[in-house]
Amino acid sequence: MKYKPINCEASVKIYNKKDCAYHAVLGWSSTEWHKHKKGQLIYADHGIMRLYTKEKVWYIPSWHAAWIPTGIEHRVVTESVNLLFRTLYLDDSLLKDKFYKKLSVFYAPPLLREMILYTEKFNLSSPATAHEKTFLESLKLLLPEQARNPIQLHLPSSEHPRIQEITDYILSHLDETVSAPQLGLKFGISSRTILRLFQKQMGVSFAQYLKQARIARAVELLVKPGKNVSEVAWEVGYESLPTFSNNFKEVMGVRPNLFLQK
Predict the structure, then answer these.
(1) 60, pLDDT greater than 70
(2) Do 11 and 129 fall within a single domain?
């Protein structure tokens, strides 16, 4: 299926405001690589988004948000049919909190979620009212405190051709047993070379990458209607439900059954 293009940069140029919000229902959509002259807060509603930077792929599931500082090149992809794309473009030039200097993905507490949803009331094509300006300035003051629960749901990426081959294979076979010796036989290199390549090119161990990949896929499956924890654990290669639950909590901060209840 072909992705529907999202032109985020155009929306920022059209609405010449210091701070503004944009809301749209998306399904199977993608942006081009781009960057902004403002900071960007993205919130995922009813689905999951993948946020690509040059170094990593970040996963933003429902009830979570991402902060992208000014000037970071990125692209956003979603394959969730009914995803509500909610984003705020915020002038971060005078914001001193260190939170605003670094890209992060975090659980969005109820207060932040409601504030983001409230911005849908603001008229993009009209000059900002005093109420709108005050509200968005207040949101910027509160955001660092509201983003205290970051998640580590991301995968490193590399332009190394052999690593790309191996990671493409891993991501296509997460429901199977995958090991460095097995991959060594398939790709004609030693398992020791594979372990060294992951550490050198990706900055993580092979085992850590595999765990992150399985949990990322699990989150993508869990946000789909009708999926249960046991079924998803099996689909991402876990034979032990307790092991899956422990690894999920390590990455997401909560166990999968609680993640489903949010």
Answers:
(1) yes
(2) yes
